[in-house]
Write a structure and sequence with these properties.
With 308 residues, the chain is mainly beta. The protein has two domains: 34 residues, no CATH class; 267 residues. It has four helices and 15 strands. Strands 2, 3, 4, 5, 6, 7, 8, 10, 11, 12, 13, 14 and 15 form a 13-stranded antiparallel β-sheet that branches. Strands 1-9 form a two-stranded antiparallel sheet. A hairpin with a 2-residue loop joins β7 and β8.
Length: 308
């Protein structure tokens, strides 16, 4: 169990021992250790919403990818090094209204009135962003696709790609609770495995991934047992880069750290954060040349959804 659960018991036992030493008139014995089961809590990472419900959204996403490809071959005076870098930063604040929900009550379609929005790619501002006061209609139309429109006009592909992860939207049968939450009530310190269904999401960017290893944990209950603090560490197994042969055989190390606080009642601030680290290194011969790759990539995301 979590160490904090045992602290009250240790304090009680220690106090009883002190009383026995300092009370010669009457012998004291330490109370028997409690055998009561640990208290369990219902943890829900995805509150059920209703059409028309209002909520506030603050989202920050940063991503950074660096890749060096070194090519050497007989007759070349020196190896050629190609450096590729991609960096993106997105900050979005908005007031939201739920327009449609999934079978589980997740937000399937949202109207987001922009209060603040900034997005850059490789340090340059992105053209065609919605303005403050614009209303973005975000709708999840399939497992992979989400549409973003302003005034019945779809946002550009580049803007949609940048913003789609900033606005939460679910589909039937899939949400954070299904992928990462426990099936039953759990005690503080308890761990559980993530749902294997999340592998399909990972395979969208790493098609070769064969599995997910890791665990989720209920770290603590805050606010008098009203807010659950949850963490998780996940490892992607069997992944390689989606590149042409022979580079598609270079193994990828991918680790995801998750943290969040989730009110047990569907009210208040739901805070979530994610950090993903990827590394890939390998070398091989191809077409008379020798190829070497060193790649690192990091993506961090924080999102706060506040329900009044």
């Amino acid at each position: 169990m979590h160490p904090s659960l045992r602290l009250p018991c240790l304090v009680t036992t220690f106090a009883a021992l002190l009383l026995a030493v300092n009370s010669p008139a009457r012998a004291q014995t330490a109370p028997a250790a409690s055998t009561a089961p640990a208290k369990t809590y219902k943890v829900n990472l995805s509150p059920a919403l209703k059409v028309g419900q209002k909520l506030a959204l603050v989202s920050d996403i940063t991503s950074d990818m660096n890749m060096d490809i070194t090519i050497s071959a007989p007759g070349m005076p020196a190896p050629q090094v190609q450096h590729q870098k991609q960096a993106a930063v997105v900050h979005l604040e908005g007031d939201c209204e739920v327009l449609a929900v999934t079978a589980e009550g997740g937000p399937k379609k949202l109207a987001v009135t922009v209060k603040a929005l900034k997005a850059t790619q490789n340090g340059s501002a992105i053209p065609g962003l919605p303005n403050v006061g614009d209303k973005i209609i975000a709708e999840r139309i399939s497992k992979k696709d989400k549409t973003l429109t302003v005034g019945d006009k779809p946002l550009s592909l580049a803007v949609t790609k940048l913003l789609k992860d900033s606005i939460p939207a679910d589909i039937d049968g899939q949400n954070d609770q299904i992928m990462f939450g426990p099936n039953d009530s759990v005690a503080v310190g308890a761990t559980w495995a993530p749902n294997p269904s999340m592998l399909a999401d990972v395979q969208e960017s790493l098609p070769s991934a064969s599995g997910i290893d890791g665990s989720m944990k209920l770290e603590s209950m805050q606010g008098g047992g009203q807010v659950a603090k949850v963490s998780g560490t996940l490892n992607v197994l069997g992944a390689t880069l989606p590149l042409p042969p022979p580079m598609n055989n270079f193994p990828v190390q991918c680790t995801v750290q998750l943290n969040g606080t989730f009110p047990t009642m569907a009210k208040g601030a739901f805070d979530q954060s994610m950090k993903m680290d990827m590394k890939c290194a390998g070398d091989a011969d191809a077409g008379g040349a020798h190829l070497k790759i060193d790649m690192t990539a990091t993506q961090s995301a924080t999102q706060t959804v506040t329900l009044p």
